[in-house]
Design goal:
The complex is a heterodimer. Chain A is built from 14 helices and 15 strands. By secondary structure, chain A is of the alpha/beta class. Chain A folds into 2 domains: 191 residues, Rossmann fold, CATH 3.40.50.970; 108 residues, 3-Layer(aba) Sandwich (Rossmann fold), CATH 3.40.50.920. In chain A, the strands form 3 sheets. In chain A, strands 2, 3, 4, 5, 6, 7, 8 and 13 form an 8-stranded mixed β-sheet that branches. In chain A, strands 10-12-11-14-15 form a 5-stranded mixed β-sheet, with helices on both faces. A two-stranded antiparallel ribbon of chain A has the order 1-9. The radius of gyration of chain B is 16 Å and the shape is globular. Chain B is built from 6 helices and 6 strands; from the N terminus they run E-H-E-E-E-H-E-E-H-H-H-H. The chains are: A alpha/beta, B alpha/beta. Chains A and B meet through strand 1, helix 7, strand 9, strand 10 and helix 11 of A and helix 1 and strand 2 of B.
């Protein structure tokens, strides 16, 4: 039966806002999520991520999706897990204080292998810190924030254009590997307006979740039996398969199996499905690396200062290079090892708006000197500060 | 996998202009900055980055809109030494006048800013009064933008007009065109030898 409300419903707007825009970083994330077929957003607005929720609250219902402002960040995270288990593409966006509250359910998503995208726009921390002022100190939290061992993927955009492209990739990576994927933005990128090119809908790549290879009913489907890539196929609620999801250690049927061998193989697989696929996942950008003697390693908005500093150092005849991490997790350590093997690099410099979180990762893979340039937050590190250390 | 969101550029001297538009919340500072950046980035074929700072108040707090326009990709997105400073009220003048590059362009809202006695190198425009005469005080920001563009040519007039067309509410396009023209023409008259 067609009701009056049905016939009176306004036509849906197009999802993809194709064209060249002068766009805020936060808005580029929202538009990318729409282009990536976002079905559900559950969130609790917090600066400096608020513009993501604001734009999606307006746009998502108009393209046929659902936007729910949840009671808090625990609920936000739980809601997107539910939406994803029902087959939808689901996302939330927050900042450090909310990211902390999400940690419990992030672990649940990792354990149940639920694809979700979580945006964390980093502000100066800890705790409520400096709202709407820059920070980059949640990067280790993204990797290790929930208890236990598990693998995740985290991207770090350096421009509004990259906010767009990496959000699309985040959805694809979440579905491909059945993991929580983080877009670790910082306030400077979130609140920066630049040119953003949004391609036609036909050019937006969508990677589908791997599903069961048999129809429901005939033979028992094992929802946690992985393929060769260590990723199990996913059946959604309502598709007719018997599925059971729990945060307890579970067997291939998804039922609790509280014994050591099951636990050992499950947790090792959760880690290995990212670790062993790291070469396919990791992304970085290099600038004048080949003959570089001083290598600046950076991520997020700090990369822009690093780029300017390296550019200026070269103008002064100093052999500086720049390795920009696009995935901070998995950390592209094999690439750094290869750069070291080339034999030119004498020291690394890691500028970051925290007191040395990613510097530890670089130190982990080299015995060369690694010099940190650090700020506790609230401001960008300037090109001059980096240049000074390069020139030393 | 490699990506090149920040393309390699050869080391050359490039032309970069840093513009700061400052005023109080409600004066349309952010829109003025947005229009300037959009004109440069989308219609003049240049690189532009726009950032802003504002107080927690919806109206009345100090706010500034910062735009960098460059021929080449922009790394560090914040202003280091503005080439152009616009002050739309006294506090903004006091705060940002000292940061202006030597020989840079200072623009003030002449009814709202009283410059220091020894500060004579400025361009003044009674933007709010001109906007009122056009019918709405709210377009004072676009009057000032027109004046800024007329004085500096940091972007082309045509590109700002396209930015206005694609940004403001359709019903206010003509009013904004008039506001822009009023400021722009005033600047051109002043520059005429």
């Amino acid at each position: 039966m067609t009701t009056e409300t049905d016939s009176a419903a306004p036509p849906l707007e197009p999802r993809v806002d194709t064209g060249t825009h002068f766009m805020l970083g936060d808005h580029a994330v929202a538009e990318a999520a729409l282009a990536a077929d976002l079905d559900f957003f559950g969130g609790y607005p917090i600066t400096p991520s608020t513009e993501i929720a604001e734009r999606l609250a307006h746009r998502l219902p108009r393209v046929g999706g659902k936007f729910v402002q949840m009671e808090d960040e625990l609920g936000s995270m739980a809601s997107i897990i539910g939406a994803s288990l029902a087959g939808g593409r689901a996302m939330t966006a927050t900042s450090g204080p909310g990211f902390s509250l999400m940690m419990e359910n992030i672990g649940l998503a990792a354990m149940m292998e639920v694809p979700v995208v979580v945006v964390d726009v980093m502000r100066a921390s800890p705790s409520t810190g400096l709202p709407t002022m820059l920070g980059q100190a949640d990067v280790l939290q993204a990797r290790w924030g929930s208890h236990g061992d598990y693998g995740i993927i985290a991207y770090s955009p350096a421009s509004p254009q990259e906010c767009f492209s990496l959000t699309i990739m985040a959805f694809n990576a979440a579905d491909r590997y059945r993991v929580p994927v983080f877009l670790m933005m910082d306030e400077a990128v979130a609140h920066m307006t630049e040119r953003v090119v949004i391609p036609p809908a036909s050019e937006i790549v969508r990677v589908e979740r791997k599903g069961p290879d048999k129809p429901p009913g005939e033979e028992r489907f094992l929802p946690f039996k992985p393929g060769e890539d260590l990723v199990p196929p996913m059946a959604h609620a309502g598709e007719g398969y018997k599925v059971h999801f729990t945060g307890l250690t579970h067997d291939e049927r998804g039922y609790p199996a509280l014994n050591v061998p099951t636990h050992e193989s499950l947790v090792r697989r959760l880690v290995d499905k990212i670790r062993l696929n790291a070469d396919k996942i990791k992304m970085y950008n290099e600038y004048l690396v080949n003959d570089a003697e001083v290598m600046v390693v950076s991520f997020g908005s700090t990369s822009r200062s690093a780029f300017s500093a390296v550019h200026e150092a070269r103008a002064r005849g100093i052999k500086a290079g720049h390795l920009r991490l696009i995935t901070i997790w998995p950390f592209p350590e094999s690439r750094i090892r290869r750069i070291i093997k080339m034999g030119n690099v004498k020291k690394f410099i890691v500028p970051e708006i925290n007191l040395g979180q990613m510097r530890r990762e670089v130190e982990r893979v080299t015995s060369l000197p690694v010099i940190g340039i650090n700020s506790a937050g609230g401001r960008m590190i300037t090109p001059d500060e980096i240049l000074e250390v390069i020139a030393k | 996998m490699m990506m090149s969101a920040m393309p390699d550029t050869t080391v050359t001297k490039t032309k970069t202009t840093q513009v700061r538009i400052s005023g109080f919340g409600g004066q349309g500072i952010v829109l003025a900055g947005m229009l300037l950046g959009k004109a440069a980035s989308l219609y003049d074929g240049k690189e532009a980055v726009f950032t802003q700072a504002y107080g927690p108040e919806a109206r009345g707090g100090a706010s500034n809109a910062d735009v960098i326009v460059s021929d080449t990709p922009i790394g560090y997105p914040l202003l280091t030494r503005p080439d152009v400073v616009v002050a739309m009220f006294q506090e903004a003048y006091a705060r940002f006048r000292p940061g202006l590059r030597e020989g840079g362009t200072l623009i003030i809202e002449s009814d709202l800013v009283h410059p220091a006695e020894d500060d004579t190198a400025f361009h003044g425009i009674a933007a709010s009064k001109i906007a009122e005469e056009l019918g709405r005080r709210i377009v004072a920001n676009v009057v000032v933008l027109g004046y800024l563009v007329g004085l500096t040519d940091v972007v082309s007039r045509k590109s700002v007009e396209r930015a206005i067309e694609t940004t403001v509410k359709p019903g206010t396009i003509d009013l904004n065109f008039e506001a822009f023209a009023a400021g722009y023409d005033r600047a051109r008259q002043e520059l005429r030898p």
